[in-house]
Every structure is written in structure tokens, then in C-alpha cells.
Amino acid sequence: MAKSLKTLRREAEAAEAQAATKKTAKKTKKSASAKATKKRKAAKPRTKRAREQMQRRRLIWVVYSSTMREEGRFLFYEKEKAEELLETLLAKGKRKYFLQPLKEALNADGTPVLQVANPVQENDDDDAAPDAESTDEADGDVDIDGDLELEDDGSGDDVESDSSADEPSAEA
After folding, report:
1. Among candidates 120, 72, 119, which has minimal Cα distance to 100?
2. Domain contains 119
3. Of 21, 103, 112, 151, which is most buried by a Cβ count within 10 Å?
4. Residue 89 CA, distance from chain mean position
5. How are strands ordered across the β-sheet holding 70-75?
6. Which pLDDT tens digit goes with each residue over 16-39?
7. Is residue 140 one of the residues assigned to a domain?
8. Closest CA to 58 of 75, 82, 79
């Protein structure tokens, strides 16, 4: 007669368990032999990087406008002067100003590192618009008609320029 499903299942599980134990036994033998044959490489001595020296800095007070333009720089111990400048600028009432500390880099000899930047020209609000008369005068100097001189073709008719062409005409 045929075996029951229960007995077949038990036989299959027993066979799987035996196969698993054989595999683990082989793996442990291989790993033990591999560990014995492998030698560690000698570690290279690590080279130390030369660290950059910390750059010296000093704290200064800077008065800025609302457009981040520097209005004044003061050493750390001159904070009272910086506050006085700030108060005078705020009293004008045109813009907003504020005081901020800034760490400034120093050279080895203790002088501040100069950072080259484009110089900012001060423009007052009153002088922002150029004069309209000065632009008109510059345009009026150009003689559009110009004096034409023709070469003498031998006909005897010489063309003379008008005297009114030298003066700029007034156009309305």
C-alpha cells in the first residue's frame, strides 16, 4: 500500500535536516581552513596631515545701512563710538541703520587682511537725477548738417557753405 502523506512529509523533513547539517559542517571546515591560511597584511603607518594653523581674527563693530553698505568700522573697545555714529545716522531718519560685530582676519604681523573690492561711490538722494540742460548742451554741439566741401571739377562753380549751417537750429 501507499504511504500516508504524514509519513512522506516526515521523511522529506528528515532528509532536508540531514542536508542542512552537512552544508554547515562543510562551511565551518572551509572557514576554519581559510582563517588559518589568511594572514593579515602589515598596516601601513598613517601619515599625519599638516594642519593649517588657525588664522588669527579680531572682533570689530561695523555700522551698516539697510542696503548692507558699511558706514563705519570700529575696534572692539570702541563700541561707544560705533553706537554714537549709529544714533546720529538714525536721527537723520532717511534710512535704517544697524550695528553688527564682524570677525576680521589678521595677517601674521597683526595687520588686517585687505580684501580688495570695488569702491562704492556715495550718491545723495538729492543729486540722483542728472541735469536735463547738460544733456541737451552736449547734443547741441554736434553739427548734423556739416560743411560739405566739394572738389573743384573745373567748371568754375564753387559751392560755398551756408553761414546758417554753422549754428544749431532751434527746433520746437
Report:
1. 72
2. no
3. 112
4. 30
5. 70-75, 57-65, 97-105
6. 888 888 777 777 766 666 666 666
7. no
8. 75
Tens digit of each residue's pLDDT (9 = 90 or more) over 116-138: 666 556 665 555 455 545 444 44
34-50 confidence digits (pLDDT tens)? 666 666 778 888 888 77
Q: Which residue has the cell 563693530?
A: 61
Q: Which residues partner with 142 through β-bridges? A: none
Q: How many domains does the structure of the chain reveal?
A: 1
Backbone angles phi, psi at 47, to 5 degrees: -90, 135
Do 101 and 83 contact (CB within 8 A), yes or no? Answer: no
Q: 106: Cβ–Cβ under 8 A, 6 or more apart, which residues?
A: 55, 56, 57, 58, 112, 113
Query: Grid coordinates 538714525 are at which residue?
Result: 90
158: left (phi over 0), alpha (psi -120 to 50) or beta: beta
Query: Which residue in the block uniquely carries the three cell numbers 504511504?
Result: 3
Residue 157 resides in a domain:
no
In a domain, residue 68? The reply is yes
Domain range holding 81?
57-105
Q: Which of 18-44 are b and which e, b meaning 16 or more Cβ less than 10 Å from the residue's Cβ?
A: eeeeeeeeeeeeeeeeeeeeeeeeeee
